[in-house]
Amino acid sequence: MLADSGTKCLAVAAVLIGGVIMSPSQVQADVGFKFDYRGLGFAYNPYCADGPGGAIGSMSVTALSNTSLQLDKFSLGGDGFGGAADSLVDSTGIASGNNMNVVFTGDVYQTATGYRIVGTLSGTDTDQSTFSHQGNLDTMSMDVTYIENASANGGVLSFTGTITSVEPPNDSILINRPAGGDNWVFEGDGGETVELGSGRGLFDVGAVTQFSFGVEQVNGLDSLFGMAREGDGGSLVMLIAGNPVPAPSAMLLGMIGLGLVGWTKRLLA
């Protein structure tokens, strides 16, 4: 799975760090979506021997009965996703994990500079028959952290990363039902929807700006990943914006990256 992350994720990550200023004329889709999940369950299990591609363990995240989702659609300003110029266009939510599903399955790798997590993140709306979003998540080695004395359980495991469409079979992180259309509809509680009329294929890269779980107090990441762990109350924030045309796809994350600091400060406040 590590080998499948590809240069697309690496290019996106580089832009996230550096930031790229884009003129409005470079962006065909000036729309962004923010998925904000709360109350997720987490499990980690070490491999007895090296797993696929040298992985040291597997990680899974699932929805619990008290999991909730807030989905917001924004019209983006010129200062990057999460900037002051963004304006909320529409929103919907799902108040219970019984009415949706969100799944992350992946592997944990130890690198020369830390730990890396690679896997697939998928979620449904209230129609649980098919996924409404799906992408490959890849953290970089410096984006997996453990903070002591940061939760009621003891510490907090946190990671951020890039997310890209699963190609094939998907041409976008936003999955259309029925397949083949250029639009996207997400249905929340009470039949309230957030919709994208066209251009769904432009939304093939994004950023996970928060993925964190309260876990027991341990002595750093080496100790945490040394044995099986479980946690709950997890949070996940994912930002997806339209891909610039005709600019290279990696530049999208420059637009998102310019606003990540603002989002993060608000999330941690």
Task: Describe this structure as you would to a colleague.
Strands 1-2-4-5-6-9-12-13 form an eight-stranded antiparallel barrel. Strands 10-11 form a two-stranded antiparallel sheet. A hairpin with a 5-residue loop joins β10 and β11. It is built from three helices and 13 strands, in the order αββββββββββββαβα. 46% of the residues are buried. The chain is mostly beta strands and 269 residues long. It has helices at 6-18, 220-224, 251-268; strands spanning 31-46, 57-75, 87-94, 102-110, 115-123, 133-138, 144-151, 154-159, 161-164, 184-187, 193-196, 205-216, 229-241. It starts with 5 loop residues before the first helix and ends with a helix. It has one domain (2-17, 28-268). Helix content is 13%, strand content 44%.
Task: Explain briefly what this protein structure is.
The chain is built from 3 helices and 13 strands, in the order H-E-E-E-E-E-E-E-E-E-E-E-E-H-E-H.
How many separate helices? 3
Rg calc:
18 Å
Structural class: mainly beta
How does the major sheet shape up?
Answer: 8 strands, antiparallel, barrel
Question: What order do the strands of the largest sheet run in, or round the barrel if closed?
Answer: 1-2-4-5-6-9-12-13
List its traits.
269 residues; mainly beta; globular; 13% helix
Fold topology:
Layout: H1 6-18, E1 31-46, E2 57-75, E3 87-94, E4 102-110, E5 115-123, E6 133-138, E7 144-151, E8 154-159, E9 161-164, E10 184-187, E11 193-196, E12 205-216, H2 220-224, E13 229-241, H3 251-268
Antiparallel strand pairs: 1-2, 1-13, 2-3, 2-4, 4-5, 5-6, 6-9, 7-8, 8-12, 9-12, 10-11, 12-13
Helix pairs in contact: 1-3
